[in-house]
Write a sequence for this structure.
């Protein structure tokens, strides 16, 4: 299938251009978009920083030193120190790992759920009505209040069974995932509805392909690019959601310095130590902005309708 | 039109019932005991605790409790708060106007900003105006509301000293003086929410305008000699706003989420702050009712968006 699309993309007349696969072609379009490339670069830099940073910047994120509490940025502490004299740079670097991990894992859950539900609804007509009603109901849920309530209700139990940090991680990732699958389900359903009428699917069915084979081999790969775009932008949204929860005091505990939690802790020192909130806030803003630019670039690159413009 | 609205209403009611049922089931099946705060006092002997349980009907199976709760909710009886020992209805009646005031004004502000901004941006596509507006919109919706709020406090309250960041809930608007105070203390929460909504809306308006600008009916309008202004405002903008209304409806849960955050930052005593407070103190009756009020608001505003859609798009009525 990819080969056929590549042929279409290249076009019969342009013999000079070497044949390219769909993904190569998309990459080519993507690299034309300066903002998207910049966004991708910044995202990669941030990911490298939070993954490798704590090995290079070896100051402890937990070492208390009341003598240097709430210091403004200096060479020894480029991001300053918090109210307990802990190094903010170390905390921001470490916190990024968790914030980004929550973003990625919860969106993987949301996409898997959404794709599965959308595929079932689009392929099997019998389930369509029921599943779409369920999707509509989920779409009219007041998301943040529901998230807060779920965490309030189940946090203690999960923390007891899975451990302090693991419990809250599983909890947050699961609830963000479960409350974010609806748009993807709609996208996948729409693509499946139109794709399953196409000749190549009929041909596959004629040679005796099973439903599972048609879904996984023929339909899913063709419906995947909008999912990829939604997933990219979703990661940014999930990072904001996690920070919001932590900022409201219902996310990670204070010994796990996610970016939102750092802002929550810094709230009381806005007048004497504004930098303790500015750096983690900027980190969230930067990564979400970059991810959004990448997502937009991907949309233009993967959607031929956008590409023609 | 009337029939369309009635049909939307008929869909909205089962949605609300389903949401309330899901929420109640989660609350009832959760490991948290609603009496954990109320009856945790060790001096209360177990027999008395059982009596409290019985008197509150907590020993009945939860589907029965759900039916009773919904019936009471519909009749306006929202039960009593465990913590402040006042009817929940009273708490909500006190606070709901604050939330609606902030969210409502913020929405109006955002529409007033977004429609001209999106329109300019699409008409001057790829020009400097477009780049500036698009970049600002991107920044605006990548910025989490809580960070914007914190920045506003640092800049406008602490550095410049223009506004107080504490919201005085006892302020009653009786004179021009108190009205001005009310405006002053509302500016920052409204700006935080309004700018965020405006950023999202601007993008919607811009992309819908761009979809419509190259269409044939636009060329027809120009060909018959209409002023460019009439073409853009009377034809393109009107048609572009129809899908925008749907997109706004889909974003309503996010708007109320943003309201919770802003109320928390600026200490605006709205229902969002009430929700956080009662979650942190374990006041289950208030939590259940406030979430339900949020659900009613979301479904209600969705309904309004649907009706607006019908007003803007005459084709809807005949389908």
């Amino acid at each position: 299938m990819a080969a056929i699309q590549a042929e279409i993309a290249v076009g019969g007349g342009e013999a000079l251009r070497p044949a390219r696969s769909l993904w190569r072609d998309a990459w080519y379009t993507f690299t034309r978009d300066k903002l998207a490339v910049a966004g991708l670069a910044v995202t990669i830099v941030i990911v490298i920083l939070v993954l490798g940073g704590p090995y290079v910047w070896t100051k402890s994120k937990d070492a208390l030193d009341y003598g240097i509490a709430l210091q403004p940025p200096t060479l020894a502490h480029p991001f300053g120190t918090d109210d307990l004299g802990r190094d903010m740079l170390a905390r921001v670097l470490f916190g990024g790992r968790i914030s980004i991990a929550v973003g990625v894992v919860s969106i993987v859950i949301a996409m898997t759920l959404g794709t599965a539900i959308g595929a079932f609804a689009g392929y099997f007509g019998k389930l369509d009505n029921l599943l779409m009603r369920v999707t509509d109901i989920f779409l009219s849920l007041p998301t943040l209040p529901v998230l807060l309530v779920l965490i309030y209700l189940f946090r203690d139990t999960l923390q007891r069974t899975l451990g302090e940090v693991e419990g809250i991680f599983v909890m947050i990732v699961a609830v963000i995932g479960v409350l974010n699958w609806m748009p993807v389900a709609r996208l996948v359903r729409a693509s499946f509805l139109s794709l399953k009428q196409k000749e190549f699917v009929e041909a596959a069915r004629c040679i005796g392909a099973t439903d599972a084979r048609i879904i996984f081999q023929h339909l899913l790969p063709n419906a995947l690019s909008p999912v990829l775009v939604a997933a990219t932008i979703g990661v940014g949204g999930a990072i904001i959601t996690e920070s919001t929860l932590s900022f409201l005091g219902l996310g990670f505990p204070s010994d796990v310095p996610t970016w939102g939690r750092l802002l929550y802790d810094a709230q009381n020192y806005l007048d004497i130590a504004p930098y303790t909130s500015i750096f983690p806030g900027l980190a969230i803003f930067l990564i979400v902005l970059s991810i959004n630019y990448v997502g937009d670039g991907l949309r233009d690159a993967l959607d031929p309708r956008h590409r023609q413009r | 039109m009337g029939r369309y609205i009635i049909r939307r209403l008929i869909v909205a009611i089962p949605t609300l019932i389903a949401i309330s049922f899901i929420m109640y089931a989660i609350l009832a099946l959760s490991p948290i005991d609603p009496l954990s705060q109320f009856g945790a006092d060790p001096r209360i002997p177990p027999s008395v605790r059982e009596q409290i349980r019985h008197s509150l009907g907590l020993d009945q199976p939860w589907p029965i409790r759900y039916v009773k709760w919904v019936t009471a909710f519909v009749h306006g009886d929202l039960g009593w708060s465990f913590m402040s020992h006042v009817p929940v209805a009273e708490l909500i009646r006190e606070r709901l106007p604050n939330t609606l005031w902030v969210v409502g004004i913020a929405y109006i502000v955002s529409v007033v900003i977004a429609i001209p901004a999106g329109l300019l941006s699409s008409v001057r596509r790829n020009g400097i105006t477009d780049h500036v507006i698009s970049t600002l919109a991107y920044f605006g919706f990548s910025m989490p509301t809580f960070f914007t709020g914190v920045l506003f406090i640092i800049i406008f309250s602490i550095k410049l000293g223009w506004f107080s960041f504490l919201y005085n809930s006892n302020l009653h608007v009786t004179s021009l003086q108190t009205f001005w105070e009310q405006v002053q203390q509302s500016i920052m929460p409204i700006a935080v929410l309004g700018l965020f909504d405006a950023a999202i809306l601007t993008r919607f308006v811009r992309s819908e305008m761009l979809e419509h600008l190259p269409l044939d009916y636009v060329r027809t309008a120009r060909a018959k000699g209409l002023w460019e202004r009439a073409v853009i405002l009377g034809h393109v903008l009107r048609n572009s706003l129809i899908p925008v209304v749907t997109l706004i409806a889909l974003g309503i849960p996010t708007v109320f989420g943003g309201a919770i955050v802003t109320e928390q930052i600026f200490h605006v005593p709205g229902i969002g702050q009430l929700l956080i407070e009662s979650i942190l103190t374990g006041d289950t009756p208030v939590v259940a009712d406030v979430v339900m009020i949020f659900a009613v608001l979301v479904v209600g505003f969705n309904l309004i968006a649907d009706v607006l859609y019908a007003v803007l798009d005459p084709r809807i009525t005949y389908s």
Q: What stands out?
A: Chain A touches chain B through 42 residues (CB under 8 Å).
